[in-house]
Amino acid sequence: GRTYVPVRFISEALGYEVGWDGSFQTAVLLDREAVAAQYDEKFTILNKVQANQGITMEEGKNYKADVKGNLTVTAFDTLNGNQTYKADLSASQILNTESASAKLSLKVSDNVVDDLMQFLISANAPEEDIAEVREAAQMVVDCLEDVELIVTRKGLGWVRAAALDELAGQKNVWMGLELGAEWGELAFAQTGEATIGSALAAMIDVDSVESLPIEVSPAAQLLYELYGDDKFTTSGGVSTRTIGVDDLFAVYEAMGMALDEADLAEAKAAFQEFSITMKVDSKGGVTMACAMQTAALDGVPGLKLTMDVKQDSGNAAISMTLHIANIGEGRLTLTQTWSATSEKPQDQPPEGAIIVDAAELLNP
C-alpha cells in the first residue's frame, strides 16, 4: 500500500538542493534561498554595507581598481638602535564581467634581506645555507616587484613574474593555471547582489546532516550577536553599534562559551581598553574605529591596537597601528579606489608569450 518516488528527481523539481550523508544514510533536502532570506531579515543594516562595498558591474562596461598601501615595522633595540623596515604596495586592476587583469608591485627596503642574513650568521648557520637563503630571498623580493595576473570567468588564469623567467630560462614566461569554471563564476559574482544571508547559507554543506542549521547556524548566531539589526541604535539616518568589553563577553555567553566568575574577572582585567564602533549611513557607507590595549600577563607583553576603516561605494581606506611593549611597532595604511574606464582587461597573455604549465615549471 506504499508508493516510492525518487527523492532527487521530485525534490529538485520542487526547487531543493539534494545531498546524501553516507554516515547517517540520510538524504538532505535544502532550500538555500529560503535559509538566506530567513537570515537576511536580521541583517538589513549589514546588507546595506554589503551592497555599498563594491560597484555592480554592468555587461559591456570596464572598471578600474587602484590599491596603494605601505607598511612600516620598527623593531625596538635600546642597545644598537631601533631598526625600521618598509614595504610599499601598488596594484592596478582592470576588469569586466568576463575577465580581469592586474599588475602588482611590492617593494621592500634593502635592509630586509640584509638583516635576515645577519640573523642566520648570528645563529651560526652553515655558509652554504646562508648563500642559498640569500639567493632565494632576493629572488622573492625581485619577483614581488613586478607581477601580472590574468583570470577569466571560465576559470582560466595566468601569472607572470621575473622569477618565472629565471626558473624557465626564457623571457616573457607566463604560468598557466586551471582554476575551474566554478571558481571563475564565484570570482566574477557581482558583489552588489550578494547578501549576508546568502553568504551564510552558502556555508551549509548539503552532504552533511550535522552542518544543517536547526534554527540558526553558529556562524550566523555569532554575526547576529555582534551586528544583528537590533544591536544597532539609529538616529538621524545613522545606525551605530559599539562593542565594549562587557559586550564582548556577553557574546561569549550567548554562544554558550561563558566563563566562570573567576576566569571572567581575570579575562576582563587583561583589557585596559576595548572598543569597536561601527557607523552605517542610510546608503550603506560605513566607518569603523577600533581601539584595544592589554596589560602584560603571564610573560606576554602588553599591546595597543588602533584601527580606522572607511568604506563607501567601493572606495576604502584603512589605517592601523600595532604597538607591542618593548618589542616593536607596525603601521599600515591601505587605500582602494574604483572608477569606470575605457581600458579593457586582458583575457589571455600577450602575443609572443611563452605559456608553461604550473606543475611542469614547479616540479621539473
What is this structure, in a nutshell?
This protein is of the alpha+beta class.
Task: Name the descriptors.
364 residues, 16 strands, single chain, 12 helices, alpha+beta
Structure write-up:
It is globular, with a radius of gyration of 26 Å. α2 crosses α8 and α4 packs antiparallel against α5 (127-144). It contains twelve helices and 16 strands. The strands form two sheets. Strands 9-10-11-12-13-14-15-3-4-5-6-7-8-16 form a 14-stranded mixed beta sheet. β13 (303-312) and β14 form a beta hairpin. With 364 residues, it is of the alpha+beta class.
Set out the fold topology:
Layout: H1 7-13, E1 17-21, E2 26-30, H2 32-40, H3 44-52, E3 62-75, E4 83-95, E5 99-108, H4 111-122, H5 127-144, E6 147-152, E7 156-161, H6 162-168, E8 173-178, H7 181-187, H8 196-202, H9 218-227, E9 233-235, E10 238-244, H10 245-254, H11 261-269, E11 271-280, E12 286-294, E13 303-312, E14 315-324, E15 328-341, E16 354-357, H12 358-362
Parallel strand pairs: 8-16
Antiparallel strand pairs: 1-2, 3-4, 3-15, 4-5, 5-6, 6-7, 7-8, 9-10, 10-11, 11-12, 12-13, 13-14, 14-15
